Amino acid sequence: MDKVNDRYLRHLFDGDLIFNVYEKNIINLSVGAPGPDLLQNCEEMLLKATQHRMEEEKKEGMYYLFQYGITAGLWECRDELSKFLSRRYGDSVARENLILSYGATHGLHLLLTSILAPNGIIFVEEVTYMIALRVFEQFPFMKIVVVPMKNDIVDLNALDKIICESKKKYGPFHTNNDSKIFWSAFYTIPTYHNPTGSVLPPECCKKLVEIARNYSMVVICDDVYNLLHYPSGPPPHRLFHYDNKEDVNYQGGNVISNGSLSKILSPAIRLGWIECPPRVANILRTSGVMSSGGGANHYVSGVIASLLHLNIQDKYLDLLIEIYTKRLATVCDVLKRLLPKCCSFYEPSGGYFIWIHLPPACDASDFIKWCQETHKVAAIPGSRFSQEGKANNNFRISIAFHQIDILKKATEILCIALDDYIKNHMKI
Ligand SMILES: Cc1ncc(COP(=O)(O)O)c(C=O)c1O
């Protein structure tokens, strides 16, 4: 362990057999990130936005954009972002409720360090974003408690029961009035879930908010896919919308919406936002990390303020929606035609992912390994998304990276291989 292997790598997925989406010999359907055909658009968009922003800086002559920024994040960026989000969500988003972050991953980490008891509990769904689980591992004094799912969404009756039991079992918790105001958090992806693609229905959203209020728990929503909504009209309301401050039993805010530009612009931009109630915003605004660093990604926030102001992000989101709508429809058409009858999937209406259910006896890890070796197509086995290594008879397909013809070919190969595997190669 006293040597660092610093070999030449180009991107996050480089050198990784499961995730290397750039590998020419394999069609890899694993990764939730855009491919070069989409990323090439960033060059022109960011040039225009940067030029606009530099002209603004010159006009003012103070060059504050190159100074330490304010802890909540550049005012103009939050102002433009609140207008953009209000427009695209079809729900109002207040500038003062936004704290800029370096992306949803940083937002999650910042929340865990700022508002959760150091010996608190993080409730997670049976399957969830696998790297969030790794973020949680960095807080070894916090407990991770798994909540079962039913039909690909969280089982709220089970959640209610588990919260009650866990509070008794693991308390007391080191909360205080100034910062660690929550003893527990439920981490979830209510809209276009990763990996299941599901959306939490409105009646469940209402119930979840009630549960959070009853137990003084915070719900941290990873809202990175909400705007990738493919039917016309506004996307499903984010959970934050249901925690209405006009409600008689409003508790000061128990929901946080953790958003990002990674899926609607570029993962490398590293800019996101935490939309939170005032009691949380005030804690984050006085955080030492945000104060010492002068907010998150201040320079980039200036460029993004211009990008939003010039409506470039709006137009690009429309383009992404058009492209992803076609990709998703193509993959789902193939699945409807060719997926073996003993398997199933639910067709999502947004986001990146399709979650395939295999028969209980079929081991997805084994199938994917075999499929990768013999048919040169890969996806991610379900157990990767499970804290307890379950979901072994599921796998996830992503439509994010490859173009439509490659996706079609890969899905056809995958379905035919799966049929062959179930009939002839399954280990029983
Ligand atoms: C649910 C979820 N949250 C967060 C992220 C990462 O977001 P960011 O790039 O904004 O840190 C991903 C990326 O795959 C994701 O799927």
From TrEMBL:
SUPFAM superfamilies: PLP-dependent transferases. GO terms for molecular function: 2-aminoadipate transaminase activity; pyridoxal phosphate binding. This is Aminotransferase class I/classII large domain-containing protein. CDD domains: AAT_like (cd00609). It comes from the Eukaryota. It comes from Microctonus hyperodae (Parasitoid wasp). PANTHER family: AMINOTRANSFERASE, LD15494P. Residues 25-411 form the Aminotransferase class I/classII large domain.
